[in-house]
């Protein structure tokens, strides 16, 4: 829609410049004096407002990639740009939901969500309003005064999601956010996450090893191969697959991803 | 338990009183008191049968009489007041300094690396090694005594605060980066609450060390009003009943401080586990 090569501004990001642009990123850790490569030549662009799922076996560097996007680790080769600007550290336009809720046990639910707004420049009343609004968004407005230890795993993770969204970030990074939950809670929260991210209009990057989750949530799926982590395929998710978990498109895409991950489907079918 | 309760309602009154008494005695733990009672019995026996000359071992009754005499004359309460004033002054100064330096050490890794080893080395010096030096610097009067007590209280608090703040898990530190918490908010919301149990352990230690130092300073520095002064008086005038009385008082107050700290710690842990 916008003219190509239009210079991007944070208010109206031009669609021509990808919101998130990862170019030839490689990353190595030094273990016992030897360099171990965890990410090899990763290139990926994500348009504003789209949802990308990254799937791969454990050890493929998925979480490391998110840490690089967050700006927690600047020691890598290649470039990561947000709206055309290089990442130089953590920033208010990015937030993350970790696999563990990582709530501070001595703060109440609203205290935990409010901690994300201390740097926002909002006054106390506006901060309170944003906290209340986001707790309502995750359906926990009644638990504002509760402490994390009084919540179930799923509720705690919803608070973590509210905390990540409270500052209205344009980039939401999700590091296996539902990985520690039981299957039923996970299914329910997948639906909620999809609704919430669409409502906030955030650009989301989800890291997961749950292929169903990747297909259900993502507009695109990036399949990583491990040791070192590298992109094996990037697949578009058809709208009908995202809309219905039992549609043929969903099943076909899921099987294709599993195949790319080297999972033999024969055994499952024989059973 | 429900069977007991049902039986109690059908039993005659005196039997019920019996079970009530038994349940009270069951609630009080008698075990720690047996050693104490045995010691007391031994003391009575040693005095009564003349195992130890009365010159070296007063009768328990003589100690009680001495207590009554001291209390009615008002002398003992004055001494107690002096000793506690010294103890609390030193404690407050030492704890405040320990908290401040500990927070600084924990908050700045540079300060931790520069000052930390010295603090650890200071911890290794036996507490009483400081007495002669502090006496030269601050004199043997109240200033010297309170300084010594403050040094004693300082040590465990500075270590506890420093460790508590610097040992915040990497996951919380990462979270604080992502949330862009300022240094002040990090201390207030993450580091201090995390350090609280360790700070409290330090405070508990400070209470005990400060009490030891109070006794020591009153014994080894200038004689002045206070329980330690009475102890010196007792040994010089050979008033064995006074010696026993003061030692018992020191023990009881120390025990009181310790119980107080344990109760407070219990409350804190319950608060922490909400």
UniProtKB/TrEMBL annotation, chain A:
InterPro entries: AAA+_ATPase, ABC_transporter-like_ATP-bd, ABC_transporter-like_CS, ABC_transporter_ATP-bind, P-loop_NTPase
Cross-referenced CDD domains: ABC_NrtD_SsuB_transporters
Ranges where the ABC transporter domain occurs: 20-251
Signal peptide: none
Lineage top rank: taxon: Bacteria
Pfam families hit by this protein: ABC_tran
Keywords: ATP-binding, Nucleotide-binding, Transport
SMART domains: AAA
UniProt similarity note: Belongs to the ABC transporter superfamily.
Name of protein: ABC-type nitrate/sulfonate/bicarbonate transport system ATPase subunit
Upper classification of the organism: Bacteria, Pseudomonadati, Pseudomonadota, Alphaproteobacteria, Hyphomicrobiales
UniProtKB/TrEMBL annotation, chain B:
Residue ranges of the TM segments: 32-51, 88-112, 124-140, 146-168, 189-212, 242-261
Localization, UniProt: Cell membrane
Alphabetically ordered keywords of this record: Cell membrane, Membrane, Transmembrane, Transmembrane helix, Transport
ABC transmembrane type-1 domain residues: 80-261
Membrane topology of the entry: Multi-pass membrane protein
Statement: the UniProt record of this protein carries the keyword Cell inner membrane: no
A Pfam family assignment: BPD_transp_1
CDD domains: TM_PBP2
PANTHER family (UniProt xref): ALKANE SULFONATE ABC TRANSPORTER-RELATED, MEMBRANE SUBUNIT, TAURINE TRANSPORT SYSTEM PERMEASE PROTEIN TAUC
Family from the record: Belongs to the binding-protein-dependent transport system permease family.
Protein name in the entry: Sulfonate transport system permease protein
Organism for this UniProt entry: Xanthobacter agilis
